[in-house]
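wait is this the right file?? whatever heres the structure
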């Protein structure tokens, strides 16, 4: 298992993890550029990303989702309540 905390705090939360051949992000609170740069610094990438799990709809957890998700083949894992809380947020790929 690999775990890489890319950002944690009020300016953005994103964690990358791998379990076997499965690769996921927990939250997507950093910009797509920041996520890819920080992954690269750790010799990781978004290639073959399986999913993005969003814990809740606060901006520091979803700020980069609208750009990152469409650039991957990842599935989005989110509760109905969190998805409802994202209404009004620019998540064009979810409409």
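ok assuming it is, sequence goes like this
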């Amino acid at each position: 298992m690999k775990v890489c905390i890319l950002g944690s705090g009020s300016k953005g939360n994103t964690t990358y993890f791998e379990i076997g051949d499965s690769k996921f992000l927990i939250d997507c609170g950093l910009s797509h550029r920041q996520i890819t740069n920080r992954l690269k610094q750790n010799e990781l990438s978004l290639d073959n990303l399986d999913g993005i799990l969003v814990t809740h709809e606060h901006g520091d957890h979803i700020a980069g989702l609208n750009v990152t998700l469409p650039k991957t083949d990842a599935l989005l894992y989110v509760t109905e309540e969190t998805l409802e809380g994202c209404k009004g947020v620019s998540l064009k790929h979810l409409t």
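The chain has four helices and five strands. so i think its the right one actually
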